[in-house]
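B., you asked whether I could sanity-check this one before it goes into the benchmark set. Here's the sequence:
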Amino acid sequence: MPPSPPPPAKHVRLYAAWDDAALVKALAQEDTLAFAELYERYWWPLFEVAYRKVNSREAAEEVVQDLFTALWHKRHQGSTIENVERYLFRAIRYRIIDFIKARMTHAGYVEYSRTHHSSLDHSTEQTVEADDLSVALLAGLMRLPEHTREVFRLSRLEHQTIPEIAEHLNLSRKTVEYHLTRALKSLRLSLRDFITLLLLYLGL
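And here's what the prediction gave me:
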């Protein structure tokens, strides 16, 4: 585990005047006060990003803490980090995706990735857009009621028909249609910033 950031003190304040590059260099030399300053500098902005995506204070705190734990474990690789701010915000994005994936069924996510990810153009700009879409889509799915989310998963990720879903879940076809319509409407609202990419991904 990384060392707990020490309480504010006069000698700690000196680190606040250091730029990120100096802090990363000191971190590589196991300077715990440099680590504490990076933690103090970036914990809250990273938490805000995570909280907006996972919609849970406890989960957001866990994701951010895991990120800083990983940063401490990789402290000797500090020389490879050219821009620590960009590094941390990129890393938190992937940790959010991983966190939400863990709450989806493995089969559903594998099918989602196999069907959609391979068709993306992996230019830098499109990769960033796809990452943002993945976070927004997975977060939107996790906000759906359990039955609605399951119907959506079976329909869009496992490509089952409405009769097949009705039989699988022991529901009427009308109930399945209701949950699917509800899921699509909810996702359209929560993903309105990514609606163009969403149409390409799922053909909504």
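One thing to flag: The first helix runs from residue 10 to 16. Otherwise nothing jumped out at me.
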